[in-house]
Amino acid sequence: MSTTIRTVGLLSNTDAAAGTQYYRHIRKVVKEQLGDLSSPNLVLRTVNFAAVIELQQQGRWEDARKYLANVAYSLEKAGAQCVLLCAVTMHLVADCIDSSIIVPLIHVVDVTAKKLQENKHSKPLLLASGYTMEKGFYQSRMARNGVDVIVPDECGRSAVHNIIFNEISEGVMLQSSRDILISLINTAKSQGADSVILGCSELTALLDVNSLPLPGYDSTILHAQAAAEFAISKSDA
């Protein structure tokens, strides 16, 4: 008997790296579960990342909310049965986006928290963009799931943000930057952290999530995994 695959809506930025990672992992899971000829049903919208970053830098979060909410709504109208934001930073406005659509928004923090809980990790270090580490939305949502997120100090946060946006995003991979990230993980470990979350897809270009001083969680892969499971799960329809 054939399996109905539900349609996943992906809202990505114009830097194709994250969207590509989502597509590849969702496709991999669907093929593994349903057979080589199976493929996911996806609806993809990309947004001008430069425009989103400019809005963020100007503190115009309400404009960012409206912009991304309209894009999410267009995914729903195109047939998406769930929506994912393929950038952790975009989740700062996730509540507004969620309220603008009827279909579920699969939240990256919730799926990451679930995996942490499964492995009995409750105090992860978060490495991500400065916006994600500093705005508090990530920590507060994790706290609702019983997880106490810690972040590097101000100097460390600045270093991570710079590595993401001024190096990795520009195709620059430096061993010295990898050493900085590993040092931040070791510092957090000495302060009681029991795991580390790579909360930005770019970081996996420098760090192997399976070869870190602490157990690692790639939030992009976990998020994509949740989307794949939604796609192949039985619908009530």
- Structural class, by secondary structure, is alpha/beta
Q: Strand order, biggest sheet?
A: 2-1-3
Strand content: 5-15%
Query: Helical region count?
Result: 10
> What top-tier CATH class of the largest domain fits best?
Alpha Beta
How many β-strand runs? 6
Instruction: Characterize the biggest β-sheet.
Output: 3 strands, parallel
Mean pLDDT: 91
**Can you tell me the CATH architecture of the largest domain?**
3-Layer(aba) Sandwich
What is the overall shape? globular
Total domains = 2
Can you walk me through this structure?
It is built from ten helices and six strands; from the N terminus they run βαβααβααβααααββα. The longest helix has 19 residues, at about 15-35. Strand 1 (about 5-15), helix 1 (about 15-35) and strand 2 form a beta-alpha-beta unit. The chain is of the alpha/beta class and about 240 residues long. It folds into two domains: about 5-110 and about 220-230, Rossmann fold; about 110-220, Rossmann fold, CATH 3.40.50. Helix 8 runs antiparallel to helix 9 (about 175-190). The two termini are about 15 Å apart. A three-stranded parallel β-sheet has the order 2-1-3, with helices on both faces. The chain has a three-stranded parallel β-sheet with strand order 4-5-6, with helices on both faces. It is globular and about 50 Å long. Helices cover about 50% and strands about 10% of the residues. It comes from Starmerella bacillaris (Yeast). This is Aspartate racemase.
Short structural description:
With 237 residues, the chain is of the alpha/beta class. The chain is built from 10 helices and 6 strands, in the order βαβααβααβααααββα.
